[in-house]
Design a protein that fits this description.
184 residues; mainly alpha; 71% helix; globular
């Protein structure tokens, strides 16, 4: 039986509620992280994740719905906000893109995605991974200034204590990678 609001049964709630909560708690930090990485306000990521999840759930009739934040969007969002210079203009662009997606769906043009080479997709995802790691690296080592890659990275090596800690942590990580490498 197709699950819709009209025919929803209470016994399905027993399985749907824990599934929905687990997806919510996984997607919530991802939404906030993507907002942080792209330069958007954190509340925008939170609101987008919640509203996007509710809207796609109500519109879709699928039992196996997959929707949520995609880390690939962080680079697109960051570049768009920087190029437009204003977050409000970015929201206008998002509305226009949403209308464009609705038109593509109405005309059944989703098969265009089959023509994108997988190497392009993998390269884009690798670049996104590098971007997200480079944004989190300063926070992981305790540097909380926005100029880390301009001057903060070089300052790590200026004092003997911090450079010793940094080099020791890199050596420990490399040793762990070598020692705990799975056997092939």
């Amino acid at each position: 039986m197709k699950r819709t609001i009209k025919y929803y049964r209470i016994i399905w709630l027993h399985h749907d509620l824990p599934a929905g909560l687990s997806v919510f708690f996984v997607a919530l930090p991802l939404c906030i992280g993507i907002a942080l990485a792209s330069g958007a306000p954190l509340y925008a990521g939170l609101i987008t994740g919640i509203i996007g999840g509710l809207v796609t759930t109500l519109i879709s009739g699928s039992q196996l719905l997959v929707s949520g934040p995609g880390a690939g969007l962080s680079t697109v969002v960051a570049a768009t906000i920087i190029s437009l210079g204003d977050y409000r203009l970015f929201l206008l662009v998002v509305i226009i893109a949403g209308l464009f997606q609705i038109l593509l769906g109405l005309f059944k043009l989703g098969s265009i995605a089959n023509y994108f080479p997988s190497a392009v997709i993998k390269g884009m995802l690798a670049a996104i991974g590098i971007l997200l790691i480079s944004k989190q690296l300063p926070i992981a080592i305790g540097y909380n200034e926005p100029d880390f890659w301009n001057s903060g990275f070089l300052n790590l090596f200026s004092s003997k204590t911090s450079s010793a800690v940094f080099i020791t942590s890199i050596c420990i990580q490399l040793a762990a990678l070598i020692l705990f490498q799975p056997y092939q």
